[in-house]
TrEMBL record:
Annotated PANTHER family: SODIUM-POTASSIUM/PROTON ANTIPORTER CHAA, SODIUM-POTASSIUM_PROTON ANTIPORTER CHAA
Protein known as: Sodium/calcium exchanger membrane region
Organism per entry: Catenulispora acidiphila (strain DSM 44928 / JCM 14897 / NBRC 102108 / NRRL B-24433 / ID139908)
Subcellular localization: Membrane
Region (Disordered): 203-236
Residue spans of biased composition, Acidic residues class: 216-235
Bilayer-crossing regions: 12-32, 38-57, 69-92, 104-126, 138-159, 171-192, 245-263, 283-301, 313-338, 344-365, 372-391
InterPro entries, per the entry: Alkaline_pH_Ca-Antiporter, NaCa_Exmemb
Pfam families referenced in this protein's UniProt entry, alphabetically: Na_Ca_ex
Membrane topology: Multi-pass membrane protein
A GO term for molecular function: sodium:proton antiporter activity
Keyword Transmembrane helix assigned: yes
Length: 392
């Protein structure tokens, strides 16, 4: 077997270099044009391929820089896609897109905190009996998510300065600045001040996160610390070279640009499909969130399959943090030149779902271990949200 990191890549990684280029070429030829259905089908196929390519190249970069820095790469990349799609669709839809940012951000929170996190906890528990992670890190970031979600998605429903579920200019400015501040503190904790809290349990000194002797014994009995074929960050194969990481970074950027552009191209088809099906307009936000979070979901599931539940949660919860902490300020700035009002407040049923997520998530993430029941509970909450999005 070759010791080259490049030769250790899975077979699909070969085409992951070509797909972003093909997607970029297709974007150049289709931008701003009306397209027949068969072209839309081709765009959708390449869009999906570009998402998978983005997953691979983000993981290469993440492998190079190591955890927990690597988790930021994909989270920020996903947020860039999300913000770009929201702004382009809001500008195109006008007043009809007033709630698109709220719907997309809330969908991202529910999908990451319940769907992706729940699936990864379930996989971890199925593989090892218990899914082990660092309670100090996960509880800290979940607390920050709760703070920002309450501030930006719940409070606007109850403020009285503006009619409807929206902030006035002063309130929106404060919410944007507070979101950036909390996200900045999270980045500082993740990468510098409390980095061990976000490292995989049992590796690089991260084992203290579970905080109990029984957890340490569980790791020893299952052989978690003695797995072969993975480096100290939980990635398979040798660490990529600087050249490989730079190439992947460039292809990652190209893939993200292609996803944003091609996503804009297929968005009218998505909107027409939602309208013809008689579904609520908020379903568009769910579709956007599902599309842009696909790279995050794939990367998180692959990490869970490597017994790296902490890395999975870094990806899931970090993406939720980025979705609120970066998307809301970006949209707030965009409203300066967009004539569209910005509706942020959730309705009653969504606030109930958020409250249930807070309660269940608190009981899950403060313990440092999760069973099948806890993973299943989060998945049920995500499924409930999706059902109510289609049938409110």
């Amino acid at each position: 077997m070759s010791t080259s990191a490049e030769q250790r890549l899975p077979a699909w990684a070969v085409w992951s270099n070509a797909v972003p280029v093909l997607a970029g070429v297709l974007l150049a030829f289709t931008w701003g044009r009306d397209m027949p259905p068969w072209v839309v089908a081709v765009i959708a196929a390449l869009l999906f391929g570009a998402v998978l390519a983005a997953v691979h190249h983000a993981e290469v970069v993440a492998h190079r820089v190591g955890e927990p820095f690597g988790s930021l790469v994909l989270a920020v990349a996903v947020t860039v896609i999300e913000v770009a799609l929201i702004i382009t669709m809001m500008s195109a839809k006008g007043a009809k897109g007033a709630g698109l940012a709220r719907d997309t951000v809330f969908a991202a929170v529910m999908i990451t905190c319940n769907g992706i996190a729940g699936l990864c906890l379930l996989l971890g528990a199925l593989k090892r009996g218990l899914a082990l992670f660092n309670a100090d890190g996960t509880s800290t970031v979940f607390g920050a998510i709760i703070t920002l979600a309450g501030l930006t998605l719940v409070l606007p429903t109850f403020t009285t300065s503006q009619p409807g579920p929206e902030f006035n200019d002063t309130q929106l400015t404060f919410a944007a600045l507070a979101s950036i501040a909390v996200y900045g503190l999270f980045i500082s904790a993740l990468t510098v001040r409390h980095r061990p809290d976000y490292l995989p349990v049992g590796r690089d000194g991260g084992g203290a996160g579970s905080g109990s002797d029984s957890d340490a014994g569980f790791e020893s009995d299952t052989g978690f610390e003695n797995d072969t074929g993975f480096d100290e960050d939980g990635y398979e194969g040798e660490r990529p070279t600087a050249r490989q990481a730079l190439i992947s970074l460039g292809l990652l950027v190209l893939a993200l640009v292609a996803v944003v552009g091609l996503g804009k191209g297929v968005s009218p088809t998505i909107e027409r499909g939602v309208d013809r099906a008689g579904l609520p307009a908020s379903v568009v936000g769910v579709v956007i969130a599902l599309m842009v979070l696909l790279p995050e979901a794939i990367a998180a599931v692959r990490a869970a399959q490597r017994d790296e539940v902490q890395t999975s949660l870094n990806l899931a919860l970090g993406s939720a943090m980025a979705s609120i902490g970066l998307t809301i300020p970006a949209i707030a700035v965009a409203t300066v030149w967009l004539s569209t009002p910005l509706l942020l407040g959730l309705d009653a049923s969504h606030m109930v779902l958020l409250a249930m997520t807070v309660a269940v998530g608190t009981l899950t993430f403060v313990r440092g271990r999760a069973t099948l029941v806890q993973g299943g509970a989060h998945l049920v909450l995500c499924a409930g949200y999706l059902v109510l999005a289609v049938s409110p």
